[in-house]
């Protein structure tokens, strides 16, 4: 983990309430896709955890949805603004487990970390497929960016206004070597029920955080191996370790 | 040269800055970030006789100038602390540590302290009679002078180390509780623990925290903490460790002027992991500006 001041290079709206922020600063602590950063915001006591969407060459890209006051303030920041970030938080996805044809599954603002993951998998020689699930066409983002990587992209929306109609669990292709998923808890739970028992997978989890680096026990979940901190022992967990009650 | 040394019941600390229990784990996460030997000492995560998972999530809410937590005393239990955490800590921390202990019956407090008493790494006990997160047990000890005294006596009977009782602010009269602990043999008083609070999610129309209520901490509670440190300092002869909302060298000095011999820093560690070393580095300069040469001299300095 590192603390660093980043400069906001540019910001653009990608879909309804969804923004991309590009920043420059010291990204040396970010080593694995699936890690996250914590952003300090003036006037807010706690930092905001946001996944790394992409990073390299001293630049960091984050995609976030405006859901409350903190993300609202973020969306109003202008180019040149300085932001204090804790970077390199969390464990990240295990690239080594991917096999040659991994399946990536993202729901809503669970999609962003899969972009950095897809890039790293391609670099390692794997051929990923990605399933992107959204509620409705107005919320769809990044499908073109994934296509530009040259990978197979399956888009679905719950109301059928873009891509196939249905949930990610309705459109899963068969025959992947490993599954990486990030999205809301109901999506992950449904995935766990739908995927064949034999399917190896990693799920990225979300919890409200006090610190983001393992000190406060604010984000603990019970797993088959005992209590784990989503911020430090996760956010990525092997499918078989998770409990769904 | 600014003199930062203070002493707690004969234990001399290089400086009065102490990360507060529950915001510093058993030191490991912070030892990866800086040399934690710069600290006066630290108070480890509230430890109970048996391991506890604590409350379901969400455990955290935000509030202006602070936060609310309902962690519920998650800890590995006293045996694991003795066999795993303390030996691991010894490799990176060469000072004694404060053992923060919680419990759900007088006997449990005593048993946990008895188990820890033989550990040389422990400088003193901080007995948490004030955890607001647990449904029964903790709350009653700290809100009732007789119960607080009973815990104090039971712990004193099984330990040879100084016993500081950590009080809850969620009482009508903090002074009567502090006096009861002093009369029962406490060597010092630690205060304040978190204030009971809650937030409601406007969209879901439900409490943010699964446990409904939690402990409110952070900068916003500084004035309440100062007031209680002030009152307790006037009422007891034993030393007071002050805490609640401290996040700067100026806050440390303010706490000491109110009567604190040493000062704990809690939530500030969570939002700025380097908060404590920054405060320690800042202290000599702020002391210089305020004409303070020795911190020892200003303890209770604001009282007539
Ligand atoms: C590891 C991790 C990675 C994340 N990555 C992304 C991402 O890439 N893009 C994205 O849009 N969102 C992401 N989130 C969710 C994001 O952190 C929240 O949406 C955001 O904190 C909301 O802040 P707010 O001030 O707008 O909301 P408010 O509701 O006003 O915030 C109040 C408090 O609750 C916390 N909070 C509220 N909702 C959440 C939530 N869903 N998860 C965690 N904390 C929450 C806030 O951090 C803050 O402390 C991630 C969360 C985690 C834990
Ligand atoms: C996440 C969290 C966990 C805590 N856990 C404990 C604990 O286990 N035992 C205890 O005595 N106090 C605990 N506290 C209370 C703090 O030690 C401190 O008394 C309180 O937070 C006020 O200080 P602050 O405003 O600087 O945070 C906890 C506080 C927080 C924020
Ligand atoms: S948020 Fe503090 S331990 Fe995870």
Task: Give structural attributes.
heterodimer; A: 245 residues; alpha/beta; Elongation Factor Tu (Ef-tu), domain 3; Rossmann fold; Dihydroorotate dehydrogenase B (pyrk subunit), domain 3; 3 domains; 7-stranded mixed beta sheet; 4 helices; 16 strands; 14% helix; 35% strand; globular; B: 304 residues; TIM Barrel; 7-stranded parallel beta sheet; 4-stranded antiparallel beta sheet; 10 helices; 18% strand; binds flavin-adenine dinucleotide; binds flavin mononucleotide; binds FE2/S2 (inorganic) cluster
Describe this structure in words.
The complex is a heterodimer of chains A (245) and B (304). With 245 residues, chain A is of the alpha/beta class. Chain A has 3 domains: 88 residues, Translation factors (Elongation Factor Tu (Ef-tu), domain 3, Beta Barrel), CATH 2.40.30; 110 residues, Nucleotide-binding domain of ferredoxin-NADP reductase (FNR) module (Rossmann fold); 39 residues, Dihydroorotate dehydrogenase B (pyrk subunit), domain 3 (Ribbon). In chain A, a hairpin with a 7-residue loop joins strand 3 and strand 4. Chain A is globular and about 45 Å long. Chain B is α/β, with parallel strands linked by helices and 304 residues long. Helix content of chain B is 34%, strand content 18%. Chain B has a 7-stranded parallel sheet, with helices on one face. In chain B, helix 8 links the parallel strand 14 and strand 15. Classes of the chains: A alpha/beta (245), B alpha/beta (304). The site of flavin-adenine dinucleotide (FAD) has 21 residues of chain A, from strand 4, strand 6 and helix 1.
